[in-house]
């Protein structure tokens, strides 16, 4: 290793992690109980969930506040920065694998499970004995048990959303370039535009969901097509929401004059996250909508 | 030769010269709740893992007590199912994995000359969410309808259509365990990649560090898939989706594919660090360098790579196209090659070595022999046509307990005895440690070896009652089980005695041990290697 050794900063004790642990506990118990109590018209579960989420937000603000303060007072070394970058890349890799599970389910259902139910390969008897009326098609709009739904086309809203997200990746990249070149006004403008595009995406996504539920009968429980459609786009939408919040926080920090051309890990991480969410959408657009 | 205490003084002096000290070690409960110190967090992980090992072990005792005789004696079948399920979940996620993470926390920074883990606060978070996750899981046992009773593999539709209402809590507790593992693994990778001492090149890394690096990669790759599959179980059960229901176009077999895509790398997550431990201990007590260091690294990486393309050997009887059966059979058998390389290297390391048989070495040797038995029965199970006979019998139970108990757990004991002097600063009581080893060794074989025959004779697993002809062997197995359970209490005696006092340990209490962790005094100071050490 050639680089000069720098002293690695080991933070003193911190109260935030244990607060975060309590928050996750409340969220898990709250979410679990809320799900159980769903059919009873609510209960204490949702309040536990809310309390946990609130505590988690407080923890994140406090913890990130500490880290930002440490960074701004110059405690961090280049080695520390590398730790953060590597940590963020591995976190994104774990997110990729999370989406891979749902894409895997989509491919399995589409390539294997549904054709087999229709009698493909050596499954003639499966077809004859289970649902002889069923014929295998994708998108699966007529379920084996007789349920009906409609498939979401890729024209219109999904296409607009694809364009919006693609542009937002470009604008964020331009913001990053401006930051590295020290053009603060351009940075602010490009970042602002990215946030607007992110919010526009989310708005159109909600629009699409309303359309699916109200007019198309395409719901979360509408067979494997509806399942994969809503879980994939839904988890993606949650990631866009989180990404937008991250960008808004970054925007606030830019306005306060944080980040320099060569020291801006948080900006970098937020930008990586956004590009990752964008790539996931492209896969979604191709495999869920178009093909 | 310098005496033990002199040796320790020299190490302490060198340590003081190279490190400026904050002699700041917080006290009381807050020390443990708020800690960012890798040694504290390692200790917490290890204590937690052992506690969970006893809890999960108590459940195994319930299982063995019920199976002592045919017929239903002690518990009703639903409770029996909860015991087998939660026993498995606790041993996998609560005992073996946290124990390895604890060892990683304690040892990796000291082995690579780092001041701490790379992300110390996240390290604290990774640990402290675990007790909460297990509180939820154990709490669900007391809910109306009982806890999870679908087996640790939670196959759909057992976990969806036919599961109790506590399944929602099971799902979220697994989510938290996953988050904990992922954060722990990120920390390990970043520490190893970024915080090595400047001269510590890749091929100088101790094998424990190498194996953990690869394990951490596996964890990050597959824990999110587990999160995905429990989420699908949640939506199938509560939100009307049909991922695992053919009526809506899904497929229960798909559950098994996604689960085992996680599950198979997971079993290597539970054994690769063992390989690292044994590769440290055998050279130390054979007083010879490890035979074939580079091949060990490549073998570990190959095993990890192969682990992603063998998952469906868990499902040969579930239904798969013929090509799938053959593909997964051959890939699985291929794993025997790198594993064979490892066993060969351990044996070759001992060849003409100046061997002594201290307790860590005893456990390591038992590991090599007994893990190999587990490996061979795995090879038998890999053969598809034969697996049709063995599937879901006690043969499978025997196989994975040989790999996990006499494999993973024995290696953890070996590690604990090997590094206990470094952790506590005292030598442990040799007599009681040897008692622990010999009692465990004998009882574990009485416990698990006859299970092979039960399985071959056709006794199914996860059943609270059985046909009369299995009665004798089951009694032997149960007696072995109680004896093994009791033997583990000896470990508590040894550790508590060593923690409270005893003969002072030298900086390097084992003559043949190699590595940076032996250059610091025993017990290891609260902060080590604030400036990185020189590496030979």
What does this structure look like?
Chain B: It comes from Neiella holothuriorum. Chain B: It is an enzyme of class 7 (translocase). Chain B: Pathway: Energy metabolism; oxidative phosphorylation. Chain B: Residues 1-20 are annotated as: Disordered. Chain B: It is found in: Cell membrane; Membrane. The complex is a heterodimer of chains A (291) and B (536). Chain A contains eight helices and no strands. With 291 residues, chain A is mainly alpha-helical. Mean pLDDT of chain A is 93; it is low at 1-5. Chain B is mainly α and 536 residues long. Chain B has a domain at 38-388: Cytochrome c oxidase-like, subunit I domain (Cytochrome C Oxidase, Chain A, Up-down Bundle). Chain B is built from 17 helices and no strands. Chain B has helices at residues 4-18, 28-33, 38-66, 77-112, 120-140, 167-194, 207-238, 252-269, 272-286, 293-306, 322-334, 336-350, 359-382, 384-390, 394-424, 430-456, 471-500. The longest helix of chain B has 36 residues, at 77-112. Classes of the chains: A mainly alpha (291), B mainly alpha (536). Chains A and B meet through helix 1, helix 3 and helix 7 of A and helix 2, helix 5, helix 6, helix 7 and helix 8 of B.
Content of β-strand of chain A: under 5%
**Spatial separation of the terminal alpha carbons of chain A:** 48 Å
CATH topology of the domain at 38-388 in chain B: Cytochrome C Oxidase, Chain A
Shape category of chain B: globular
What structural class do helix, strand and pairing data of chain A support? mainly alpha
Largest interface between protein chains, with number of residues from each side: A-B, 68 and 80 residues
CATH topology of the largest domain in chain A: Four Helix Bundle (Hemerythrin (Met), subunit A)
List unreliable stretches of 5+ residues of chain B. none
What about the largest sheet of chain B?
none
CATH homologous superfamily designation of the largest domain in chain A: Cytochrome c oxidase, subunit III, four-helix bundle
Order of helices and strands of chain B: HHHHHHHHHHHHHHHHH
Number of beta-strand segments of chain B: 0
Name of the CATH architecture of the domain at 38-388 in chain B: Up-down Bundle
| Overall pLDDT level of chain A | 93
Structural class of chain B: mainly alpha
Radius of gyration of chain B: 23 Å
Subcellular location (chain B): Cell membrane; Membrane
Protein name (chain B): Cytochrome c oxidase subunit 1
Transmembrane segments (chain B): 44-65, 85-106, 127-150, 170-195, 207-234, 267-286, 293-314, 326-347, 359-383, 395-420, 432-456, 476-496
Pathway (chain B): Energy metabolism; oxidative phosphorylation
């Amino acid at each position: 290793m050639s680089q000069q050794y720098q002293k690695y900063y080991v933070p003193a004790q911190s109260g935030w992690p244990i607060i975060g642990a309590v928050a996750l506990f409340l969220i898990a118990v709250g979410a679990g109980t809320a799900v159980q109590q769903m059919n009873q018209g609510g209960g204490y579960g949702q309040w536990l969930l809310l309390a946990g989420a609130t505590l988690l937000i407080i923890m994140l603000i406090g913890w990130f506040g500490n880290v930002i303060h440490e960074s701004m007072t110059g405690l961090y070394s280049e080695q520390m920065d590398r730790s953060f970058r590597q940590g963020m890349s591995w976190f994104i890799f774990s997110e990729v694998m999370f989406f891979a599970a749902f894409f895997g389910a989509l491919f399995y259902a589409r390539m294997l499970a549904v054709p087999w139910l229709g009698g493909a390969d050596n499954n003639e008897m499966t077809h004859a004995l289970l649902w002889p009326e069923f014929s295998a098609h994708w998108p699966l709009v007529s379920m084996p048990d007789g349920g009906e739904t409609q498939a979401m086309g890729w024209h219109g809203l999904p296409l607009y959303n694809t364009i919006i997200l693609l542009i937002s990746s470009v604008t964020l990249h331009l913001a990053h370039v401006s930051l590295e070149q020290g053009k603060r006004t351009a940075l602010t403008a490009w970042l602002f535009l990215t946030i607007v595009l992110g919010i526009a995406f989310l708005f159109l996504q909600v629009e699409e969901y309303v359309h699916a539920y109200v007019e198309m009968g395409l719901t979360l429980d509408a067979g494997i097509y509806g399942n994969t459609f809503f879980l994939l786009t839904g988890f993606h939408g949650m990631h866009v929401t989180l990404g937008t919040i991250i960008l808004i926080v970054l925007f606030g920090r830019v306005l306060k004059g944080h980040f320099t051309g060569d020291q801006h890990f948080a900006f970098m991480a937020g930008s990586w996250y956004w590009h990752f969410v964008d790539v996931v959408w492209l896969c979604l657009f191709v495999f869920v909508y178009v093909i | 030769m310098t005496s033990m205490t002199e040796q320790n003084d020299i190490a302490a002096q060198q340590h003081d010269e190279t490190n400026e000290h904050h002699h700041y070690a917080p006290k009381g409960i807050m020390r443990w709740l708020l800690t960012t110190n890798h040694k504290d967090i390692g200790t917490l992980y290890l204590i937690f893992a052992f506690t969970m090992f006893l809890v999960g072990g108590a459940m195994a005792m319930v299982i063995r007590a019920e199976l002592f005789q045919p017929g239903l004696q002690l518990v009703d079948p639903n409770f029996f199912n909860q015991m087998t399920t939660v026993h498995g979940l606790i041993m996998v996620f609560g005992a073996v994995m946290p124990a390895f993470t604890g060892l990683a926390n304690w040892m990796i920074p000291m082995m690579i000359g780092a001041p701490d883990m790379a992300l110390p606060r996240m390290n604290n978070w990774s640990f402290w969410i675990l007790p909460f996750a297990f509180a939820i899981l154990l709490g669900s046992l007391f809910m109306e309808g009982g806890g999870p009773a679908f087996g640790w593999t939670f196959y759909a539709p057992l976990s969806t259509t036919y599961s109790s209402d506590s399944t929602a809590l099971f799902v979220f507790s697994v989510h938290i365990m996953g988050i904990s593992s992922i954060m722990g693994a990120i920390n390990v990778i970043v520490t190893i990649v970024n915080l090595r001492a400047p001269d510590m090149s890749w091929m100088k890394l101790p094998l424990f560090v190498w194996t953990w690096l690869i394990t951490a990669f596996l964890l990050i790759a597959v824990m999110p898939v587990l999160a995905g599959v429990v989420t699908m179980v949640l939506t199938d059960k509560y939100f009307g989706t049909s991922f695992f229901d053919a009526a809506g176009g899904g497929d229960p077999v798909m559950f098994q594919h996604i689960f085992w895509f996680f599950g198979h790398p997971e079993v290597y997550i539970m054994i690769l660090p063992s390989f690292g431990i044994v590769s440290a201990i055998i050279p130390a007590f054979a007083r010879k360098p490890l035979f074939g260091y580079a091949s060990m690294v490549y073998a570990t990486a190959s095993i990890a790579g192969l682990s992603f393309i063998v998952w469906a050997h868990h499902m040969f009887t579930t239904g798969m196209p013929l090509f799938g059966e053959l593909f997964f059979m051959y890939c699985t058998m291929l794993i025997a090659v790198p594993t064979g390389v490892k066993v060969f290297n351990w044996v070759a390391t001992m060849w003409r070595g100046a061997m002594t048989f201290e307790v860590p070495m005893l456990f390591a040797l038992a590991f090599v022999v007994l893990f190999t038995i587990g490996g061979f029965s795995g090879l038998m199970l890999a053969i598809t046509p034969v697996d049709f006979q063995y599937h879901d019998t006690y043969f499978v139970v025997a196989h994975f307990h040989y790999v996990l108990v006499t494999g993973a757990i024995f290696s953890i004991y070996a590690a604990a005895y090997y590094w206990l002097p470094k952790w506590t600063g005292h030598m442990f009581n040799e007599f009681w440690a040897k008692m622990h080893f010999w009692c465990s060794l004998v009882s574990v074989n009485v416990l698990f070896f006859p299970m092979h025959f039960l399985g071959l004779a056709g006794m199914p697993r996860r059943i609270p009652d059985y046909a009369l002809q299995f009665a004798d062997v089951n009694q032997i197995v149960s007696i072995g089980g109680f004896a093994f359970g009791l033997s583990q209490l000896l470990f508590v005696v040894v550790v508590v005695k060593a923690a409270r006092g005893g003969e002072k340990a030298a900086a390097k209490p084992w003559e043949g041990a190699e590595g940076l962790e032996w250059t610091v005094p025993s017990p290891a100071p609260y902060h080590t290697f604030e400036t990185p050490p020189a590496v030979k």
